């Protein structure tokens, strides 16, 4: 319908809001729509660079993400549901198998929108091994370079998937 198309922003203000290297393969990546409109996820991808690699593996996003909503993507649906008590929005056993030092990029039509880490490096201020990294509440736009001051690294037991 024409009205819903008019309210959909293809570029939007999507950001990574949380990532966790939790126990029992309940690892997850959370994407938040900080913008005022619904975002069409066609053409959006999450790219994972494992262990200092300069080659990535991509996960294509689909559907839409409403303003103020989160998309929770996991390594293992069963492990995630068992730990957090709700169904995630998607899964990929390889792309979301974060081990705490992988770099993730959020891309829209190939253009870099947000990043966790530094491509080609396997550790640094973003290292969340056996932990979680949560975007600070005041951050509402992505960054194309790693910004350590925008993140809080905490124990994975304190992860809050689906909550901003």
Largest sheet, in brief, is: 6 strands, mixed
Overall radius of gyration: 15 Å
Helix/sheet category: mainly beta
Question: Largest sheet, order of strands side by side?
Answer: 9-8-3-2-12-13
The tally of strands reads 13
Estimate the strand proportion: 35-45%
Any idea of the CATH class? Answer: Mainly Beta
Q: What distance lies between the first and last C-alpha atoms, to the nearest angstrom?
A: 30 Å
Named CATH architecture: Sandwich
Discrete helix count: 2
What is the element layout, followed by pairings?
Elements (H helix, E strand, L loop, with lengths): L1 H5 L1 E2 L4 E7 L7 E6 L4 E3 L3 E6 L7 E4 L3 E2 L4 E5 L2 H8 L5 E2 L11 E6 L2 E6 L14 E5 L15 E5 L9
Parallel strand pairs: 1-4, 8-9
Antiparallel strand pairs: 2-3, 2-12, 3-8, 4-7, 5-6, 5-10, 10-11, 12-13
Based on the model shown, name its key terms.
164 residues, 2 helices, Immunoglobulin-like, globular, six-stranded mixed β-sheet, single chain, mainly beta
